């Protein structure tokens, strides 16, 4: 009688330990998710602030540089042509860079993985039917 009661309490104790471990893992995962979410929000705000700062710096450069050139060079038409040519060269360079970096191909690894999964599933179905 005593041994049976001892076995039941041991089994219950083991079940409680497993349940506690599962609960601990769930809580750890929830904590990790919350921390990642908070970090993502904080970093998103920081990246946004950096992007706005970059836009303002670029805007200041795009306004200040032509003004300085006009003040230093008496021929305003020449300054305008130089500035326009600079913009056209930068735009053309960025357009070419973007065109060569652009990839309009389907995701090859995903397609290959889907085909492998399909073949595996078909093999499983055909082997289970035999």
Layout of strands and helices, then pairs:
Elements: H1 2-72, H2 76-101, H3 108-129
InterPro entries: Phage_holin_3_6 (IPR009937)
Transmembrane segments: 45-73, 79-102
Organism: Candidatus Nephthysia bennettiae
Binned, the helix content reads: over 70%
Output mean pLDDT. 86
What's the number of extended β-strand segments? 0
Distance between the termini: 51 Å
Order of helices and strands: HHH
Structural class based on helices, strands and sheet pairing? mainly alpha
Number of helical runs?
Answer: 3
pLDDT below 50 for ≥5 consecutive residues: which ranges? Answer: none
Transmembrane segments: 45-73, 79-102
Organism: Candidatus Nephthysia bennettiae
Keywords: Membrane, Transmembrane, Transmembrane helix
Protein name: Phage holin family protein
What does this structure look like?
This is Phage holin family protein. InterPro entries: Phage_holin_3_6 (IPR009937). Keywords: Membrane, Transmembrane, Transmembrane helix. With 130 residues, the protein is mainly α. The chain has helices at 2-72, 76-101, 108-129. The protein has 2 domains: 1-72; 77-130, no CATH class. It contains 3 helices and no strands. The longest helix has 71 residues, at 2-72. It starts with a helix and ends with a helix. 0% of the residues are buried.
């Amino acid at each position: 009688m005593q041994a049976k009661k001892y076995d039941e309490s041991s089994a219950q104790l083991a079940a409680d330990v497993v349940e506690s471990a599962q609960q601990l893992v769930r809580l750890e995962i929830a904590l990790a998710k919350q921390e990642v979410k908070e970090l993502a929000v904080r970093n998103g705000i920081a990246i946004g602030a950096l992007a706005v700062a970059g836009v303002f710096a670029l805007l200041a450069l795009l306004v200040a540089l032509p003004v300085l050139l006009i003040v230093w060079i008496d021929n305003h038409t020449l300054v305008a042509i130089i500035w326009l040519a600079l913009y056209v060269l930068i735009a053309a360079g960025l357009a070419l860079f973007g065109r060569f970096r652009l990839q309009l191909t389907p995701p090859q690894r995903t397609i290959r993985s889907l085909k492998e999964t399909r073949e595996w599933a078909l093999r499983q179905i055909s082997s289970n039917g035999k």
